[in-house]
Amino acid sequence: MPSKRTYQDKCTHFLNHTSSLTSNHYLNAKHKVQIPEPLFNPSIPKTIHFLHYNKNLENPKYLCAIESAAAKNPLHNVIIHVMNTTSFSLSLQLWRSNLPTNLSDRINVIEINWGTTFRGTPFESWFNRQEYVKSKWIEQNLGNAFRLAHLWKHGGVYLDLDIVSINPVSGMGRSVGMQDSKRLNNAYLSFPSGDAFLEEAMHEFVSGWRGYRWGHQGPELVTRRDICDGLNIAPTVRFFPVKYGERAWLFDPWYQQCDLLAKFADESIGLHWWNKRTAGAKVSNETAVAIVMKRITIAAPSQSMMLPTPRKIKALHLLLAAATLMSLFSIVSLLSLPPQVDTSLAAAATSIRAKFDLVLKCDHYIDRASHPSTFLLNATSTSNIKRPSSQTASIPKNIFFVHYNDHLQNPKYLCAIESAARQNPSHMITIHAANHWTFVKAIGKWKAALPSHMQNRIRVVSLNWEQAMTNTPLELWFKEERYKESKWIEQNLGNAYRLAVLYKSGGVYFDLDILSVNPVGGMGRSIVMQDSTRMNNAFFSMQKRDPFVWKLMEEFVGTFQGYTWGYNGPDMVTRTYTKTCGASEPHNSCEGLHVAPLARMFPIQYEQRGDLYDLFNAQCDNAVKFADEAIGVHYWNKRTQHTGIGDKTLLGVMMQLACPVVFETFGGNQLGVNENGIVGSAEYYRVEKQDWL
């Protein structure tokens, strides 16, 4: 028997481990030891799904699962699928209002539609024939089917509402969890959309349907379908560190279960606490866990039934406390500590203000740029929105760029990357680079100088043309080397590559000559206008396996012309939209697709590009338009890449504010942004004409 001090040390270890809002303790599906960094599987959307099929929130302890999942996975959206969004959302109001913004903004409530979810899956006829009513547990079995169908269509992570998150899920990959030595369990699932295992599980569900046998359509189902290569089977300790037969341990006094608590901290992603058997757990009014229950049930009228007569604190209660009190601690710390200041950005703003006698409109732009990620726009309205709509939750929080040159010859491109990372703190930023290690080396000093919350979200992956285009309409076009029938081979490969990656992974694509000036989170599923008649492929925001992206690839291949500039880029998007969505009977892929106004990405038209070279304080009308109506500003790099930029010009000032660490790392001279650069639109057009002769 270990000494009492040993137990105390282990309990202290657990409390220390769970005392902060987030966790850097990453685990994968195989090993018991911590892995050094999250291993994001790009094919699995960063979305965590919960399912609540009762009409009202009768058990506010379920909010512990939701809050802890959002806190421990800061790069994931959290979606709660409910029967009645209005009543459920009302029951969450006060709880949500007390959450930190970076948690609350990532939690969305979506109404369940069984028929829509099952349509086009093996469940469709089973549901239409109402086979589900032949069951002792109708809603539970509908829920078992729903999670399979929804993940098959959209991908992501599913967690039961009686799983409290202890560590991030990021390293788990494509996996299911062991419940015990013999059975898997469907309380946790992590899959890309269209996964073969999920499809087999749905067929097994329908063909082996037994509605009157508990567990047959759940844990036993996924156990029967454990057949697919590349599927990770997570050990029991990841989600079931306390097995069903051991559940009484959760009700021992916490100081008698320090070994167990330490194991949770070091080896578990979450704890399944067997709510069906522990729903009546009581908590003392005189313990810390009572504060937690008041915290997470603050909006629930049934709160009092959760707080009966005093009892000893239990291991389960301590875990619930640690999982949700972290939000209280974070709120207290936010109130008591001064806000973090981005010194690089603050210094850039101070320097620019010192150079000009600014009018209010220009100062408004500097103020907005000094507070990134605070002004949210959608694809249609020109006013600030409070939070993204539920429809945006289907867009994975990935922003990707493509760099197809072997070397980073133009460090100004890093401005696009840094500004996107600043404006979108919940998004992963991925650069697909032709020469992976050369690019990593070239950006090493810059990346090391970034704030840690940005460093950790920026990654470089190898650009692999063939792998990206396999299993898409582009595959044969690439294998037959039709891309060589072009004056601009790499550009057209890049046009194709972005579509393939967008289709397979979903998310947001930006060209490397777009400076982000506001967050992209409200844009939803959208493309953007370049001018009054044409769209552009410099920006896309799409869900994974989006049918409209498939249409874009088909149009790209079917009409490819390698010797006409823009034909396979902006013109291709315009043609596809016109054919697909402008027809008298639009294709179903057009439903919910927004065409954002040119102010979102192209507030400066091609014919107006010289305005970017006017002095900043002479372009205040444009500056305020960028601040209030743009997500990004496309600055036409093909025309400006060989042109020095005056550091007091509109473009020069925008760059200094968008990517201050780029300027600190490379310096204005290397970037070509300095006092000797071009000033004035007339001078710009003169130099441009000379360069292009």
UniProtKB/TrEMBL annotation:
Gene3D superfamilies: 3.90.550.20. It is a single-pass type II membrane protein. InterPro entries: A1-4-GlycosylTfrase_dom, Glycosyltransf_32, GlycoTrfase_DXD_sugar-bd_CS, Nucleotide-diphossugar_trans. The keyword Transmembrane applies. GO terms for biological process: glycosphingolipid biosynthetic process. One of its GO terms (molecular function) is hexosyltransferase activity. GO terms for cellular component: Golgi membrane. The chain crosses the membrane at residues 315-337. It is found in: Golgi apparatus membrane. Residues 191-290, 542-664 form the Alpha 1,4-glycosyltransferase domain. Signal peptide: none annotated. Its main location: Golgi. Keywords: Glycosyltransferase, Golgi apparatus, Membrane, Transferase, Transmembrane, Transmembrane helix. PANTHER family: ALPHA1,4-GALACTOSYLTRANSFERASE 1-RELATED, LACTOSYLCERAMIDE 4-ALPHA-GALACTOSYLTRANSFERASE ALPHA- 1,4-GALACTOSYLTRANSFERASE. Belongs to the glycosyltransferase 32 family. This is Alpha 1,4-glycosyltransferase domain-containing protein.
